[in-house]
Amino acid sequence: MSSDQIAALFTRPDGSFLCARWGRPVAPVIFGLADETLDIFRSVIRAGFAHAGHPMAETDPEMGSNLMLFFMRDWDELAGIPDLEQLTGIQGLPERLRDSQADQYRVFRFDDNGAIRACLGFVRMTGALSQAHPAQLAEALTMRSTLTFARDITPTPDLAALIRVAYDPILPPAATDASYALRLSARLAQTAKTGPVQ
Question: CA 119, CA 67: separation in Å to the nearest integer?
């Protein structure tokens, strides 16, 4: 992937750039799925963060769970989530998502050093997502929660390699300058020649 392609992945509509990874072990919890689908999601999340080389935990000392995925049939169901505004820092989220006819939405929260401290994902399992295979949906949602992608991404080997490189301890946990894409591109090229970073 070129640096321009990488920069585009983390550039928001307002032109700002943010590429951040998790800075603490990920402790996931999933709401609204049947048991058999829940097992698929848990396995895919474990595999995704293992690929990134990032640890997972049973609980987060501050939040209990810091990767929260909520599945629902309609955005009005968000009203039943306790302390939703406190969790997300957003007022009127159900109305916003309903009015925009969104299928999914993510909210990231950050530590003082800019690293991800929490990710909340909301998925409306109707429309386009109602026919998605559970394993494919789980892979996509997991990848989208590993880094602060500015837009939805479709899992590919190139993106998997980018995630792995972004978790290289030699790199900072967060960057707000688009020139950071040059460092990621260079690390990708090096990895392609020498193999994955250990």
Answer: 5
Instruction: Report the run of H or E that residue 26 belongs to, with start and end.
Output: none
Report yes or no: 109 and 117 within 8 Å, Cβ to Cβ: yes
Non-local CB neighbours of 21 within 8 Å, separated by 6+ positions? 52, 54, 115, 116, 146, 147, 166, 167, 173, 174
Pick the CATH number of 22-146 from 3.30.379, 3.40.1000, 1.10.287, 3.90.930: 3.30.379
Q: What is the pTM of this model?
A: 0.92
d(CA 24, CA 113): 12
First to last CA, the chain: 20
**Domain segments of the chain: what residues?**
1-19+153-198, 22-146
- Angle in degrees, CA 9, 13, 22, rounded to 5: 45
The number of C-alpha atoms within 13 Å of 125 and in the hemisphere containing its C-beta is 17
Give the C-alpha separation, 52 to 33, whole Å: 25
Amino acid in position 87: L
Q: What is the pLDDT of residues 51-94, one digit of tens each?
A: 999 999 999 999 899 999 999 999 999 988 988 998 898 999 99
